[in-house]
Amino acid sequence: MSESNSTPMMEVCCAIIIQGDFVLLAQRLPGADQELMWEFPGGKVEDGESLTIALKREIKEELDAEIEINGQIPPTFHQYPEKTIRLWPFICSLQSEYHPRDVHSLRWWPIGPKAPEELAPADIEVWNDFIKWYYENPPAKG
Fold first, then answer.
1. Which of 9, 76, 109, 117 has the highest local Cβ count within 10 Å?
2. Got the DSSP string for the chain?
């Protein structure tokens, strides 16, 4: 998607949290934009925040968890009617237990070409980019 349009640009970061052959997805709260859709956890980057600080803050707020950032895949752009977001995806691992706080539900989804149904529009391209990255960079087994 082109960066040039008339809607405001919002910087958003998300964590692709891998555990074994699964990734953690969060379900948006009822009443929120795109309510009850699934997404990679994360959120808006506040003024003056780095992407990684914003991501760690958002994961603490949503999941009450600590993460380690292990890599990054290229950002994607998605235009909604009222805004455009640039979504910065990071490959992460959990460093603590998690307890959902600012999400409706969590689930572990198997890593593979089949994207979850009800995945938020901005996260579909992230899913596809992640799957490509994952198969090009398979985790060490054993």
1. 76
2. --S-SSSPEEEEEEEEEEETTEEEEEEPPTTSTTTT-EE-SEEEPPTT--HHHHHHHHHHHHHS--EEEEEE---EEEE-SS-EEEEEEEEEEESS----SSSSEEEEEE-SS-PPTTB-HHHHHHHHHHHHHHHHSPPPP-
